[in-house]
Amino acid sequence: MVKKYFAVFKPYDMLSQFTGDENASLLGDLHKFPIDVYPIGRLDKTSEGLLLLTNDNEFKNRVLDPMNKSPKTYYVQVDHEITPEACKELAAGTISIKHNGKQHRVAKAECEKIETPNLPERSVPIRVRKEIPTSWIALTLREGKNRQVRKMTAAVGFPTLRLVRFSIGEFDLGEMKPGDVVEIDPNDVIAGWRL
After folding, report:
1. Can you give the pLDDT at residue 134?
2. Lowest-pLDDT range, 84-93, 137-146, 151-160, 185-194?
3. Which residues contact 94 (CB under 8 A, 6 or more apart)?
4. What is the CATH architecture assignment of 1-68+171-195?
5. Are 161 and 134 spatial neighbours (Cβ–Cβ below 8 Å)?
6. What is the mean pLDDT of residues 66-91?
7. I need a labelling partner for 189 at 20 to 30 A (CA). Which of 1, 60, 120, 172 fits?
């Protein structure tokens, strides 16, 4: 089997899968991927950003295995001007979120307030309220529960407005635009993940 690796900038309003309802926007709409290639993890429909795809199960398991704690960095636009206290709380590993019907205490993370990142405009603009500012954080997680980032920012009182996964391990979006697909050289995978 020839091992294949792809990086995709998943656009807003697209499912992280190849099959779905007739009207759904799917990964196969972006590129003719080999039939045995699948996404590693997922981003929900309203999230954007980096998605890795491969037919290399060893690589997929390495990225997804919680024991490896692969870092994933998200650029998150939140409602209001986020406070240093909220950033500390997001990083501390003290927040409990609901996951699969149970309470889950999130692992420690890294969080910092950042200037507005240089990202392409979203296809559907976020709602803007003149009297309420927004702000951005870079949040790096080493676990991945369903809608975790959104649940975490809501828990500290700053709901997520826009969510873009910028990087997974050594790979990041770079200059990619929504809908872009880049094939990754297998040597870069080996170097980036020290297989």
Report:
1. 95
2. 185-194
3. 105
4. 2-Layer Sandwich (3.30)
5. yes
6. 94
7. 120
Given phi > 0 = left and psi -120 to 50 = alpha, else beta, which region is 149?
Answer: alpha
Portions of the chain given CATH number 3.30.70.1560: 71-168
Task: Report domain 71-168's class.
Answer: alpha beta
Could you give the 3-state DSSP secondary structure of residue 139?
Answer: strand
Calculate helix-pair angle for 57-64, 186-193, nearest 10 degrees: 30
Which residue intervals of the chain bear CATH 3.30.70.580? 1-68+171-195
How far is 134 from 116, CA to CA, in rounded Å? 10
| 61's tokens | 């398991």
Angle at CA of residue 162, ends 54 and 164, nearest 5°: 25
CB environment 51-86: b (16+ within 10 A), e (fewer) = bbbbbbeebbebbeeeeeebebbbbbbbbeebeeeb
pTM surpassing 0.85? yes
Residue pair 12/124 in contact by the 8 Å Cβ criterion? yes
Catalytic residue among 13, 44, 65, 188: 44
Query: In this predicted structure, what is the pLDDT of residue 12?
Result: 96
**How far is Cα 10 from Cα 131, in angstroms, rounded to an integer?**
31
Q: Which residue carries 């297989």 as its tokens? A: 195
